[in-house]
């Protein structure tokens, strides 16, 4: 064997190469090593100009939600709901959706709807108008509410947020059968934001260690969720996830990484980037995939969180729902209220988790999930 080749395969050489790689990674993406080893660029490259996004007009605009709050809204939760899902909406209003402030951080929850299709309830439109007037938390756009129009619904909600809540820091898109651990999510976003801001400030230090003049970055670039990777389009026309060859040619391979539509967070800068670029891409009827496609187009890399459950259903557990998980899917309305009462009753003298449960964290939640299901 050649002497040089022998030297390069020496264990010390391999160790040195590994340490060098980790150092480079730490320099360019330190905060995300501690998270899920996802290196999201602090300032993605600007996307090329595209035609403006054309969306249906709003039937129930509800434009005053974010006015007169006194301080910027930290988290806006957009819940995708069907017109006839009032029971689900009421369950959310009576549970986690009632939270409007977490340790000084303002939170609001809104329901995004389309128009009812052929429903057996002839007066559903009138009932919906009354619900919107009484509750004040509904935004409705002029399109037929269906699963295949979920991309239109989501884009309408995101556009509403950008226009009528221009100072919002983060937007969570979720569904009306998902339980959201709002205090946990606020704490998670606050921590991630602080970490990324520190990284940014460290890049703009003068040689003497004082802070240099740098671009103001009040909110980091963040696309956070349960990230799916290397998912190929379904070609079955009987599947609600069907994507045609025209919409996504097979030559493109799998979809780009994307956050499960059951719950993903977009920070304000990412929200604006996606809305600016969405008009230049043909709509894909699978909403979460479409957001991932646009994110890749504008240079935003999604960040995976193991605490966001995606499509998985977890058995009701005080520690998992109150402390560990940020979202959980497939929750019935009556379960939503039960979980809320369980978590709320545990916030006093009785801790949400024992020290052992806290130490085991997601591992324990995974075990009881697989044990029950």
From TrEMBL:
GO terms for biological process: ganglioside biosynthetic process; protein O-linked glycosylation. One of its GO terms (molecular function) is glycosyltransferase activity. It is found in: Golgi apparatus membrane. Gene3D superfamilies: 3.90.550.50. Keywords: Glycosyltransferase, Golgi apparatus, Membrane, Signal-anchor, Transferase, Transmembrane, Transmembrane helix. One of its GO terms (cellular component) is Golgi membrane. It is an enzyme of class 2 (transferase). The keyword Nucleus does not apply. It comes from the Eukaryota. Its EC number is 2.4.1.-. It is a single-pass type II membrane protein. The keyword Transmembrane applies. Belongs to the glycosyltransferase 31 family. This is Hexosyltransferase. It comes from Monodelphis domestica (Gray short-tailed opossum).
